[in-house]
Write a structure and sequence with these properties.
There is one protein chain. The chain has helices at 2-25, 28-39, 53-73, 77-100, 118-137, 148-171, 187-191, 219-223, 262-265, 284-299, 312-322, 333-339; strands at 203-210, 213-218, 232-239, 255-256, 259-260, 271-275, 303-308, 327-330, 345-350, 353-359. The protein has 12 helices and 10 strands. The chain has a 5-stranded mixed β-sheet with strand order 8-7-6-9-10, sandwiched between helices. The chain folds into 3 domains: 2-171, no CATH class; 203-239; 251-365, Glutaredoxin (3-Layer(aba) Sandwich), CATH 3.40.30. Strand 7 (303-308), helix 11 (312-322) and strand 8 form a beta-alpha-beta unit. InterPro entries: Methylamine_util_MauE. This is DoxX protein. Its main location: membrane.
Length: 368
Amino acid sequence: MRNILTQFSRVFVGVLFIISGLIKLNDPVGFSYKLAEYFGETVLNLPFLIPYALGLAIFIVIFETVLGVMLLLGYQPKFTVGSLLLMIVFFTFLTFYSAYFNKVTDCGCFGDALKLTPWESFTKDVVLLFFILILAANLKLIKPILGKKFTNGLVVASVVACCFMGYWVLNHLPLKDFRAYKAGTNIPEGMAYPAHIKPKDPIITFIYKVNGVDTKFSYQDVMDGKIPADAVYVDRIDEIDKTGYVPPIHDFTMEKDGSDHKDEFLAEPKLMVFVAYDLTKSSAEGMQKLEALHQLAKGKGYKVIAMTASGETEIAGAKKQFGQTFDYYFCDGTTLKTIERANPSIVLIEKGTIKQKVHYNDIDQLTL
C-alpha cells in the first residue's frame, strides 16, 4: 500500500510540476510580471529583486520543470524531493499570505492558461505539500526507472530543451497564446457585457510615492487635484466587484489629447499598432525598425499608430531618437503588457479583430 501511494504521489507531483513549469516557460515574461508583483512593497517588500524578476522567473520555471522530470525518472531522489519540498513550503506560505491578506489576485501558477483564485492557489499548494511529504517519508521507494547513463542523458536533455525554449520565446513570442488578446480575438466583443448583465463601475485607486512612501488616492482625489506636486506615480488598481461579471478585455483605451479614439481605430479595415508599454525600457534594436515598417505599411493602405503607457516627454524623446513620424496613444501599462510581451511588438488589427502579432525580431513574418 505504501509503495502504491508513493508511486502515485511521484507521478502526480512530477506531472503537475512539468505541466506548471512548461506553461510558465511558454511565457516567462508574464511570470516575471507576477514575481515583480510579489516582490513589491504590498507583499514581500523586496523591491531590490524587481530588476531581477525575469532572470529569476526563467530559473524557477526551468528548475520546476526539470525537477518534475527528475522525479518521474527517479533521478537523485533525495535532492529532487528535498528541492520540491523547499519550493512547495515557500509557495504555500506565499499563497496563504497573499490569499489571507488579499494581496495578489492570481498566483500565476499556470500562467494565463488557468486562472486560480488566491484560496484555490493555496489549496493546490496544500495538496501538493501533502503528496510531497509522502515522497519525503518514503525516499527509499523512489527507484530509477531506467539505466543510469540513459537517465543522466534525459535529465541533461530536459535542461537543454528548457533553456532553448526559454531562449526562443524571449526572442520571439509565446508558443501558445493564452491571453485575452490572442490572434483571432475581436476586441469590441471582448469588452462587451452579455445582455443580461449590468456593468459595474470599478473602484479605481491610484498609488503615488509621497515622501518615499506608497500612498493610495481615490479617483476623486485625482480629479480634485489632491495629489501632492512632488508625488511620483507608481500604479493604478482597478477593483471590480467580485460578484460581478468582468469582461476578458477591459482598461483598453487609445487616448490622445484627452479623447479615447478606440472606436475610431477599431473600425479601421487595416490597422497596424506598435505596442511599447514603457519607452524607457524598449529595445533600441526594435524601436529602430518601426519607422521603416511604418512607411511600408502606410504604402499598403494601413493606418499606423503606436500605444504606450509612457508620458509625453518619453514619447517626444523616442520619436526624436528613432526618427518616428507616427503618433502615440495612451493605454494602461498592464493592459499593454497583456496584449504583447515584446517591447516593442507589432499587432495587425482588422475591424477590431486581431489578425497577427509578432515580436520585433519577426517583422519579416508579417502578412501585409
